[in-house]
Amino acid sequence: MKVLLVEDETKFAAFTAKGLREHGFVVDIAANGDDGLGMALLGEYDLLILDVMLPGRDGWSILAEIRQRGLEVPTLFLTARDAVSDRVRGLELGADDYLPKPFAFAELLARIRTILRRGPVRQPSVIRIGDLELEPARMSASRGGARLDLTPKEFALLHLLARRRGEVLSRHFIAQQIWDMNFDGDSNVVDVHIRRLRLKVDDPFAQRLIRTVRGVGYALDDWA
């Protein structure tokens, strides 16, 4: 899952992003409203987390603009403004939830998962490829009815491959999406995680789903 966090408090943004990444999310950060709007319009995000009071454009206007343009990406306001009128305004603009600061990170995570579980139609609640099933909102996967014991990064990698079913994804693209990093040709981080993922997703089963395209990258599909 790819998240855009629009937050001008540097330490708060870094702490929140770190926690989300540890739970398998890919997180981009915008430190002001204008950058936040631009990234929201150009990026393919599964969730927006917006502060209200931001340098430049505020969170209200960001949400109003993206809704006016027909973008239904789920949105959570995360702000110190906790008056009832502020919450009502956010929900009326089309926010999915409103969490006032300070908060427990566990609550933020639970609210995010709830939003994604009931998210827009474009995000299926279950992704099926052959006998492989993924439930993105619960970050769970199973194959042949048996639950797969995946780490958050392994699930994020499998989910990325499943969402782009049949497409050959380059190592550079995978590294950007999963590790939020520029791929170094000498790095084997993608290959190592693919190998670990195969041990759980492919090796115990007769049919392999993860395919290597030599010199290019990886793809996932039911090739039967």
From TrEMBL:
Keyword Heme: no
Database matches in PROSITE patterns: OMPR_PHOB (PS51755), RESPONSE_REGULATORY (PS50110)
Residues annotated as domain Response regulatory: 2-116
Alphabetized UniProt keyword annotations: DNA-binding, Phosphoprotein, Transcription, Transcription regulation, Two-component regulatory system
Regions recorded as binding DNA: 124-222
Species this protein is from: Paramagnetospirillum marisnigri
Record GO biological process: regulation of DNA-templated transcription
Protein name per the record: DNA-binding response regulator
Modification 4-aspartylphosphate occurs at: 51
A Pfam family reported for this protein in Swiss-Prot or TrEMBL: Response_reg
A single MF term (Gene Ontology): phosphorelay response regulator activity
Domain OmpR/PhoB-type: 124-222
GO cellular component: cytosol; protein-DNA complex
